[in-house]
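Subject: for your reference before the review

Hello V.,

The reviewers asked for a structural picture of the protein, and I figured it would be easier to keep everything in one thread rather than splitting it across files. Below is the amino acid sequence we used in the manuscript, unchanged from the supplementary table.
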Amino acid sequence: LAQTYRFNVTNFGVGLGIFAMGLLKKVVLADGISPYADAVFNAADAGQAITLEEAWLGALAYTLQLYFDFSGYSDMAVGLSWMLNIRLPFNFNSPYRATNISEFWRCWHISLSNFLRDYLYIALGGNRRGEARRYANLLTTMVLGGLWHGASWSFVLWGMLHGLYLVTQQLWSRWVTQRTGFKPVPAVVAPGRLTRLLSWGITMLAVIVAWVLFRAVSLEGAVTIYSAMLAL
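And here is what came back from the structure prediction:
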């Protein structure tokens, strides 16, 4: 206990470096990208027409802005804790490198993901009560995870969409296992660069599409963005 209150130059130096990295993510990257996302989403929420290029630029910009903003704050908190000789766990582990949606949630907002898994999914029964109940538990957990961010239909639909992503992945894994007799190996260790690239591309596309609901102030604004992304 006494060591916790004793100045440690190594911990202070490491913590300062982590804090500086988090500050860079927030002030330089997140705040620098923010105007590009805000311009598109604010226009959509105001009912203005959005072009295909603008919609994708706004969605991609927000995808990067959110990560750098949120992980930046988390890194600053971790850095400060190290400077005070307290080891807080990192909250992000390169989530945008994930090659399936389950891996994404293991790497994104790790503290929230662990909470949802331990206190909602497992408490609801997890995968112990049959396939149908397992999928219902996944959907319920993610919808409640969406509500955790705010009492808005946009957050509810965002959580439901991620729940459907997870259910789809589980169904795909089950289908492949039934047809081939082999359980699919996680794409992150699957042989072949093309397989990894394709898995990453599909995962990132799903994540970007869902972030539109997370960012849009209104459902009408989200629909406007989606329509433009599909060139409708």
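For the response letter, the relevant points are probably these. The mean pLDDT is 91. The chain has eight helices and no strands.

Happy to draft the paragraph if you're swamped.

O.
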